[in-house]
Amino acid sequence: MKRQRFSFAVIACTSLVLFGCIGLALTHNFISEDVRYFLSIIVCVVEATLLLWSFYQSIIGIAGVMPLKQINTPLKRYPKILCLTAAHNEDAVIATHIRSLKSLNYPSGAYSIVVLADNCTDQTARVADAAGATVWERHNSRLTGKGHALRWALHQKANLEEYDAICFFDADNLVHSDFLTVMARHVEDGKMAVQGYLDTKNPWDSWVTTAYASSYWYMNRFWQRARAILGLSAAICGTGFCLSTQALRQIPWEATSLTEDLEYTARLLLRGHRVHFAHDALVYDEKPLNYAATVPQRQRWMQGFWTTAFKYTKPLSKIAFSGESSWLRSVDLLIYTWQPVFVLLTGLNILFSVAQWCFGMKWFHPWLISLIPPAAWETLGLIGLALPITALILERAGWRAYVLFPLYLVFNVSWVPITIEAIRHLKSTEWVHTEHHRAISLEEIDKVS
């Protein structure tokens, strides 16, 4: 909570000002019509923006229940693939990760395993070498973070001419045995970028890991899969993705922000490509056990969202308004990159809802509420709740996910203070490392499932 003192102070001050002004004005009956109109405009803009955003996401999300075309064509040849794992002080989990890669159902001569030991001060390099991986050690105290590490590896170490594709992983990942086979089919089909299915290897360790897992199940089904079905672009999610070396030659890796995955997704779209989604290429990663450990990780994500939005809004907007065939994909990615704004508006709308519950509607004109029938609001709210629950059903989540669903909603609301905190640290480029300890195997995951 110490990392969020500023955001909680902002929320508290905003609440006091809003509720204090409304309460004082109504008590003494001196709220002017000008003030009422001013508040009405703010409420209307916030509600209208969230309404349009929710309607758009609901329409897109519903496509997630449709079947996704899979590429099951037998491979005539096995593309040469480099499995590249970025690791920073991961000696607790790196050996298990490498074992999962060495157990893939793919010819051993057709893929290589490389661990990029970036600024490690522990035994990551030694353990990875002993486990049978090739190790590339990088030491650079000035250019830190995963994006810079990958740039160094792809520009200075990897021979792109030697491979057909590169698959990217994190050191805590467990990789399903068919992962490379699925990705190879996509590569042979001419796909430039493919994101795999991200799952959690420790969904039942705590309510926090269950909330993370529920978010992943929802995102895989009603975000990534839905967009793939509609011909939009999925998003690269940092791990478990594949890039053809043709893509990397056309669009060299220059994504070095705190969300290098989102940045490279934008760069792909600007060159007319999209990210495909492979629902049957599974990767499991480890999630933090307690709430405090999630804060720096999620704050880093939101900082990266802000910087990517500022950097790529103009070029993406040019495509969006150009009439090109990819205009809708650009609009969709713009909406995604500006996710922090919608989070903040959601927080503001919660305050408005509380104020309305406490003081009624005398302090503003309910223009939008009066214009749209109550049934429409109720339907949209039901869809918002139904999609995450439907994701749990379709992705065959365990019973504990349903029991802890209210905490999943609380977890989503907690993005509000994290997004505020990200604004405060917007100029920071510090990459805060998330510690990993769960060195479990795929067999153990299957038993738990």
From TrEMBL:
Q: Care to name a GO molecular-function term for this sequence?
A: glycosyltransferase activity
Sequence intervals crossing the membrane: 37-56, 333-355, 367-393, 399-418
Q: Is Glycosyltransferase tagged as a keyword?
A: yes
Coiled coil region boundaries: none
- What's in the keyword line of the UniProt record? Glycosyltransferase, Membrane, Transferase, Transmembrane, Transmembrane helix
Fetch the CDD domains from UniProt.
Answer: EpsO_like
Looking up PROSITE patterns in the UniProt record yields: PROKAR_LIPOPROTEIN (PS51257)
Kindly indicate whether the keyword Ubl conjugation belongs to this entry: no
Q: Which InterPro entries match?
A: Nucleotide-diphossugar_trans (IPR029044)
**Which PANTHER family does UniProt cross-reference here?**
POLY-BETA-1,6-N-ACETYL-D-GLUCOSAMINE SYNTHASE (PTHR43630)
Record-stated family: Belongs to the glycosyltransferase 2 family.
- Protein name according to UniProt: Glycosyltransferase
